Amino acid sequence: MYTHILPVLRCPCCGAGFELAESRKEDEEIIEGKVLCGKGHLFFIHEGILDFQS
């Protein structure tokens, strides 16, 4: 997942925006990490793919 699309994404549970909680990056791509919405919903990034089922 690339960092420049993060401001466009919205939480599927509440519609709030995401912030990157922690990550492992290669250049501009997030390979592993976590995103947290404004209301506390946490989702994981595995192998560059944001998993909304986590």
Write the layout of secondary structure elements.
Layout: E1 18-26, E2 29-37, E3 42-46, E4 49-51
Antiparallel strand pairs: 1-2, 2-3, 3-4
Which strand order does the major sheet show? 1-2-3-4
pLDDT below 50 for ≥5 consecutive residues: which ranges? none
Quickly count the helices.
0
The count of domains is: 1
What is the typical, i.e. mean, pLDDT?
93
Provide a descriptive summary of the structure in words.
This protein has one domain. Strands 1-2-3-4 form a four-stranded antiparallel sheet, with no helix packed on it. It starts with 17 loop residues before the first strand and ends with a strand. 0% of the residues lie in helices and 48% in strands. The chain is built from no helices and four strands. It is globular. Strand 1 (18-26) and strand 2 (29-37) form a beta hairpin. It is mostly beta strands and 54 residues long.
Task: Tell me briefly what this model is.
This protein is mostly beta strands.
Task: Looking at this protein, list some descriptive labels.
54 residues; globular; mainly beta; 4-stranded antiparallel beta sheet
